[in-house]
Amino acid sequence: MSRSDRPYADLGKERLILRDCLAADRTILANERTLLAYVRTALTMTAAGISFIEFFSSVAVHLLGFALLIVAATTVGVGIARYRQTKRRLQHVSGYAAAPPTDGD
Questions:
Q1: Domain residue ranges in the chain
Q2: What pLDDT band is residue 100 in, cutting at 50, 70 and 90?
Q3: pTM of the complete model
């Protein structure tokens, strides 16, 4: 991986200050919101595609409906892939994949 792929690679977790950890947390939440936007878009395309298939009798509209279903599936796949990629990049920042807190925390 190049340096641009891992912007925090040269920083040990102990060197991150609160502001950096909070920025990483905001990035994590933004990543989750982005995944939900991909899913919401795919659901909308799925509903439109099914509506085109069910309520119209034209062959062209049926093809458009099936095309929307394919694009919706692709959209979900791209969204999940981007979410996982960003999640992997952020795992070492702000304890994203850290163990659950102990009783003392």
A1: 46-92
A2: very low
A3: 0.70
